[in-house]
Amino acid sequence: MATCRNPEDADALKKLTADNPNLILQTLDITNESSIDSLLKEIGDWPLDLLINNAAYLGPPNPQKFGQIDYQMFTRSFEVNAIGPIRVTEKLIKNVRKGNMKKIIFLGSAAGSIAQIAPPVTLYSYRASKAALHMSVHNLYHELKPEKIMVSLINPGLVDTRGFLALQPDDPIPERLSKIVPIELIKMIQEGKIPMITTLESVTQMIHYIENLTTESLPLFVNCDGTPMPW
After folding, report:
1. Among 16, 94, 104, 137, which is most buried by a count of CB atoms within 10 Å?
2. Where are the alpha helices (DSSP H) in the chain?
3. DSSP state of 228
4. Are 82 and 132 in contact (CB under 8 A)?
5. 64 vs 119: CA distance, rounded Å
């Protein structure tokens, strides 16, 4: 089963569903209690082998600069990135307990690593909300370990979903990209100071890691290739 806020607009997911008859596409807004409850009614008592919490909200960069912070957006970042994944997991834990694999995956972020923070120091709401998620997942790991339920926090890497890799060092920065990512960060990507990977590279590595995840797997917080991430 795959979920998203607006299935009618999710062309890639709709194609995936058409190509895979066993895949069910459902509506889910992880910030909305009634939306989650509607999903629970659809799932019923189905066992869940694997739960992947993938939803996230980055938000535009300018309202996340000190002196310009948009606190409504700050709140939304916490609702989506920190609260939503835990809320969904709490609602679905009975289904995970019935599963054979019993694996719960959260997508964390290097941006939420306190030990790894480095310039450009922007994205206040995104960084803080991801750091909050990391703490909750760490708690959950210890909470569920006695039940042999596997919990893992994976940084997918800096994944190019918008065409950053096509930029050359001297290319002007398209406005559409500067609205998504701080210009300082884009320049570092152009200069090769921050490596990006493709979606295929990231997902392939994460699938391999998840398939080999066991109750003894450590550390809890890892990069998509399984290497340790600093908290």
Report:
1. 104
2. 11-19, 33-43, 71-77, 84-98, 124-144, 175-178, 183-190, 199-211
3. B
4. yes
5. 14
Angle between helices 33-43 and 84-98 (to 10 degrees): 10
The 3-state secondary structure of 158-197 reads CEECCCHHHCCCCCCCCHHHHCCCCHHHHHHHHCCCCCCE
Assess contact for 120 and 182: CB atoms under 8 A.
yes
**Burial of 132: CB neighbours in 10 Å, binned 0-12, 13-18, 19+:** middle
Residues 93-111: b if buried by 16+ CB within 10 A, e if exposed: bebbeebebbbbbbbbbbb
Measured between alpha carbons, how far is 190 from 171 in angstroms, rounded to an integer? 8
Residue 152 carries which side chain, given as an amino acid letter? S
Q: What are phi and psi of 53, to 5 degrees?
A: -95, 100
CATH class of residue range 49-223: alpha beta
| Spans of all domains in the chain | 1-44, 49-223
pLDDT of residue 25: 92
Statement: residue 146 has pLDDT above 80: yes
Average pLDDT, stretch 82-94? 98
Q: What is the pLDDT of residues 107-145, one digit of tens each?
A: 999 999 999 887 667 899 999 999 999 999 999 999 999
**Helical (H) or strand (E) element with 155:** strand 150-155
Interval 156-167: pLDDT, tens: 988 887 777 777
110: tokens are 């290097």
Residue 120 pLDDT: 67
